[in-house]
């Protein structure tokens, strides 16, 4: 087998890679991310107008966005949107819900325990572990700083 030089490899990579349009990609990401946040705010206002307290309305918005993201992921719409919007779909709550639901759907044929249950947190698991550990560390720092003052 003939070995490629670095220059030949770089040329092949350049030819095979899709052309990027940074301005267009940024606009799509900004627009879609903003639209997701707008949906959240519209839901919040609807919940508030329905008589929910501010904290409960915020909680209901979070649950609604997670549910909508899971449904859109299951229907394949979230992926189609992400192809165009890129980082715009990574609004934390919807992006995280997508990261949990995607592997669960992909591995459902392996069963509820070894498929869905085991694979659901493949992507999201490290995020959860880091979040829990970081909150514990920050909490300890805060606690000891308060004791010192």
Give a summary of the structure in a few sentences.
The chain is mainly α.
How does this structure look, described?
- This protein has 149 residues and is mainly alpha-helical.
- It has one domain.
- The protein has seven helices and no strands.
- It has helices spanning 6-16, 22-49, 54-75, 77-85, 92-106, 112-119, 124-148.
- α3 packs parallel to α5 (92-106).
- The longest helix has 28 residues, at 22-49.
- The protein is extended, with a radius of gyration of 21 Å.
- The chain starts with 5 loop residues before the first helix and ends with a helix.
Helix and strand content put the structural class at mainly alpha
Distance between the termini: 69 Å
Give the DSSP E fraction (strand runs of 2 or more residues): under 5%
- The total count of helices amounts to 7
Give a count of the beta strands, DSSP E runs of length 2 or more.
0
Helix content: over 70%
H/E element order: HHHHHHH
Q: What can be said about the biggest beta sheet? A: none
Uncertain ranges: none
Q: Please, how many domains?
A: 1
Q: Using the CA coordinates, give the radius of gyration.
A: 21 Å
Q: Could you report the average pLDDT, rounded to the nearest whole number?
A: 84
Identify the overall geometry: extended
